[in-house]
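User: Just a sanity check before I run the rest of the batch. Below are the structure tokens for the first item. I only need the designed sequence back.
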């Protein structure tokens, strides 16, 4: 029998475990549910190989981890020792991702602190190489109220989620002209954080920008730049495209530009809530494009940016 931790997608809200159990029994496999935490569960299953089929066949399962050790002594030294034991047995000498889940929020250390303690010990003992970008060799440390679960997962036990490559996203830069309001600034920053493109804010309202950072409780994200000179604004951009309510050309022209762009960097230049793209930015652009049908109402900045990204990224990724 094999102990396995199941992790479910947030939308499932407790229904996924029943689907897993029914699927396993349809395979003719015995399964016992030991713990049900709604968005995760602990099961005992008679054959490990069927878990690969569960990840493939049950949409609401995000990943599965094989439990190596369950410990009741939750002291950090004991947790570190158990994690080292797993690495020696399963992932000796390779790159590993250390994923700590502090389900018991009263535990004395944070997830980050626990992960750092484990990583430090891994390096000192020379048993493996901690790597935050590793996805195939994953150590999972789950801190519950009564026990600590030391488990591991590999790529084949994780749900594959198709996505546009970041290398494609990084070919797109958004330049936004003189944003004035909190909600405009917040919307474009959050969009940049979610998608990962570079956002260049040209002379935004400085006070409102700082208020937004305070509201979001963040420093300026690494992919967001605040600039006040045009040379810096357009640096590294091969094709600059102004998005304007008053342009002659529309998406038909934009699609042709994108499909012939090869690997060049695209810069989209947008205005703000109160004014279209200024003449000083517009004069630096290669093209001017209008988005959407004629409705008499211009799109808000973040809406126009999301719209054009939804059109652009699939084309740059070669999907169309």
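Assistant: Here's the designed sequence for the first item:
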């Amino acid at each position: 029998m094999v102990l396995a931790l199941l992790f479910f997608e947030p939308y499932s809200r407790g229904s996924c475990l029943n689907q897993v159990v029914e699927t396993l029994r349809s395979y003719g496999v015995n399964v016992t549910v030991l713990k049900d935490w709604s968005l995760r569960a602990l099961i005992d299953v008679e054959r490990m190989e069927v878990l690969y089929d569960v990840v493939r066949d049950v949409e609401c399962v995000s990943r599965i981890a094989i439990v190596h050790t369950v410990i009741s002594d939750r002291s950090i030294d004991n947790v570190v020792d158990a994690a080292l034991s797993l690495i020696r047995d399963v992932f000796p000498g390779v790159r590993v991702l250390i994923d700590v889940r502090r389900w018991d929020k009263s535990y004395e250390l944070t997830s980050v602190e626990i992960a750092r303690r484990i990583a430090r010990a891994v390096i000192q003992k020379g048993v493996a190489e901690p790597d935050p970008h590793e996805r195939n060799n994953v150590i999972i440390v789950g801190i519950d109220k009564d026990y600590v679960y030391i488990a591991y997962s590999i790529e084949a036990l994780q749900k594959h989620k198709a996505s546009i490559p970041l290398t494609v996203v990084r070919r797109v830069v958004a330049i936004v002209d003189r944003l004035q309001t909190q909600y405009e600034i917040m919307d474009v920053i959050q969009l940049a954080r979610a998608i990962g493109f570079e956002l260049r804010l040209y002379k935004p309202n400085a006070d409102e920008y700082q208020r937004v950072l305070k509201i979001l409780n963040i420093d300026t994200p690494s992919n967001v730049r605040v600039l006040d000179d045009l040379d810096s604004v357009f640096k590294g951009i091969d094709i600059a495209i102004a998005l304007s309510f008053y342009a002659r050309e529309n998406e038909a022209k934009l699609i042709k530009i994108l499909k012939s762009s090869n690997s060049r960097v695209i810069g989209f230049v947008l205005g703000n809530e109160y004014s279209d793209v200024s003449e000083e930015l517009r004069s630096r652009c290669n093209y001017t494009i209008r988005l959407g049908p004629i409705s008499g109402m211009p799109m808000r900045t973040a809406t126009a940016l999301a719209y054009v990204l939804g059109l652009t990224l699939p084309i740059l990724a070669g999907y169309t």
